[in-house]
């Protein structure tokens, strides 16, 4: 019996070249779009994470867990950002305020200093009290940076009675009401945000209105008030070089 001839024909060189060309074209279109989407996602997620931490630590004052809280913001281009929080309970806070010899009263300019006012000021550092440790929050991310290098702090109390700041997010003792987040990728960290003169800085977050060459393509921000109102903002520079807000 004659065996049926097998068809062992493979792909021709031309067919392989055509397939590779199609795959390359799709990758050329898809990869840049994915990179842009991922950069937006990083900024959006980081902004929401910072906002969530702010809401959580503010809630501890409203519940009465802490009477006074501090947030320490730290940023550098190598490690990214970190935020750590501290709190002092009502009984300890009342004792400090009523004692005229302690640094809360003798050095009021340092009430939000990154260096503790005294060794026992922050009750949350009592490691034997689990209920306090559960209300302390911390985040760190290497994929974003703040719009400054170094440390800054924000302090607030229940009902906004006490409200202080230090470092890059403060003017004197009064904190700004916002912080920017930048994508921690090379030139994107080289971002100088200019301010719109006719915006009331104490109410409205300054929107970027100029962009450095090659940098500052993806910008997020978190805005807060002393009463716990917290919002997030995101901007990106499109290929047209025109500023656009996106959500």
Characterization of this structure:
This protein is an alpha+beta fold and 247 residues long. It is built from four helices and twelve strands, in the order αββαααββββββββββ. It has a five-stranded antiparallel beta sheet. Strands 4-9-10-11-12 form a five-stranded antiparallel beta sheet, with helices on one face. β7 (170-171) and β8 form a beta hairpin. The radius of gyration is 26 Å and the shape is elongated. The termini are far apart. The model is unreliable at 239-247 (pLDDT under 50).
Integer average pLDDT: 80
**How much of the residues is beta strand, in percent?**
25-35%
Distance between the termini: 72 Å
Give start-end ranges of low-pLDDT stretches: 239-247
How are the strands of the largest sheet arranged? Answer: 3-2-1-5-6
Number of helices: 4
Helix content: 25-40%
Largest sheet: 5 strands, antiparallel
Overall 3D geometry? elongated
What's the quick description here?
Helices cover 27% and strands 26% of the residues. It has 247 residues and is α+β, with helices and mostly antiparallel strands.
List keywords for this structure.
single chain, 247 residues, alpha+beta, 5-stranded antiparallel beta sheet, 4 helices, 12 strands, 27% helix, 26% strand, elongated, disordered C terminus
